[in-house]
Design a protein that fits this description.
The protein has eleven helices and eight strands. The longest helix is centred in the C-terminal third of the chain and has 34 residues. The mean pLDDT is 89. The chain has two domains: 226 residues, Alpha-Beta Complex (Spore Coat Polysaccharide Biosynthesis Protein SpsA, Chain A); 71 residues. It has an eight-stranded mixed β-sheet with strand order 7-5-6-4-1-2-3-8, sandwiched between helices. 28% of the residues are buried. Helix content is 52%, strand content 17%. The chain is α/β, with parallel strands linked by helices. It binds uridine-5'-diphosphate and magnesium ion. Magnesium ion binds next to loops.
């Protein structure tokens, strides 16, 4: 018998726990035929509703259901990491609780790993139907920007829904960084990945946990985690401004020699000072971003804290 671990991060998903379980059980017969057992890990990421109760109810019915309760909300990336660390399966899959990642795809994904020898099967949505247009616009810009800046490929529209072999999971676990940007980590470890595409499915119940602002911060985290290009941009800007300053010095000296010193030029001086200080603060900001990430990284704080495990 092989074991398939199913990791489900949940944050305020009380309405979805049971629905997800029922949907997942529709694939049970397929996996039974192929001699694969389930281990279902619900990672409760500090929910403020009855998510934990719902999972405990399921656990009483089905002992393959496990619960990992965090002491507070640590974010989906931490929940995924916890699930991977606790997983015992030969294969591991993680998917959202809101049924936006259809469990019905699992048999097909499993086929690619077992029959075609892929190390992981990932999914990407080809449409952004049902998403506010402004969000789609910024999401596209983000993916094109990060792919220009980073050597690691980060796939547009990639979801975290992914089935992996044990070897792939161990590779991910070996990346113990505190600032976890999964979309980059999956690409960074390499291996053969098969991409499945599907149309975006809207959330059935509850609400998305991502506001525009949260996504913006997440985008910055992704860029700092997988690219140091902004630091190079800061240096290049510095060099350019040195050249500009040299040219201005020459112009000023020549003008003084030829025309004397009429003490004019106040408006241009104001412009130059504002521009240069703006650029300086911008570059300082970039430096600050990397410094703050390094600061958090060297503290070696745990990625999550478990309150209870069932
Ligand atoms: N999630 C989590 N911790 C968080 C936010 C979200 O574990 O801090 C879980 C959430 O319960 C869901 C999944 O991550 O199962 C995806 O969240 P959501 O559906 O809100 O994101 P979207 O699908 O809108 O990108
Ligand atoms: Mg969702």
């Amino acid at each position: 018998m092989k074991l398939l671990t199913i990791i489900v991060p949940c944050y305020n998903e009380e309405e979805n726990i049971a629905d997800f379980y029922n949907e997942l059980m529709k694939t049970e017969s397929f996996f039974k035929q192929h001699e694969v057992d389930f281990e279902i890990l619900y990672v409760n990421d500090g929910s403020k509703d009855h998510t934990a109760c719902e999972v405990k109810k399921l656990h009483e019915k089905d002992e393959r259901v496990h619960l990992i309760n965090f002491s507070r909300n640590f974010g989906k990336e931490s929940a995924i990491y916890a699930g991977l660390q606790k997983s015992k399966g030969d294969y591991v899959v993680m998917l959202d609780c809101d049924l936006q990642d259809p469990p019905a795809l699992l048999p097909e994904m499993y086929g690619y790993i077992v029959n075609d020898g892929f190390d992981s099967v990932a999914t990407r949505r080809v449409t952004r139907k049902g998403e506010p247009p402004i969000r789609s616009f910024f999401a596209r810009r983000f993916y094109s920007l990060i792919n220009k800046m980073s050597k690691t490929e980060i796939v547009d529209g990639a979801r975290d829904y992914r089935l992996m072999t044990r070897q792939f999971v161990n590779a991910i676990l070996s990346m113990e960084e505190y600032n976890r940007f999964s979309k980059g980590i999956f690409g960074w470890v390499g291996f053969e990945t098969k991409w499945l595409e599907y149309e975006n499915i809207e959330r059935k119940k509850g609400e998305t946990k991502w506001s525009f602002w949260k996504l913006f911060i997440y985008a910055i985290d992704g860029i700092t985690a997988f690219s140091t290009v902004p630091l190079a941009v800061a240096s290049i800007l510095g060099v350019l401004f040195c050249f500009l300053a040299a040219a201005l010095i020459i112009v000023t000296i020549v003008r003084k020699a030829v025309y004397g010193d009429p003490t004019s030029g106040w408006p241009s001086l104001v412009c130059i000072i504002s521009l240069v200080s703006g650029v300086q603060l911008f570059c300082l900001g970039i430096l600050g971003q990397y410094l703050s990430k390094t600061y958090l990284e060297v503290k070696k704080r745990p990625i999550y804290i478990v309150k209870e495990e069932i």
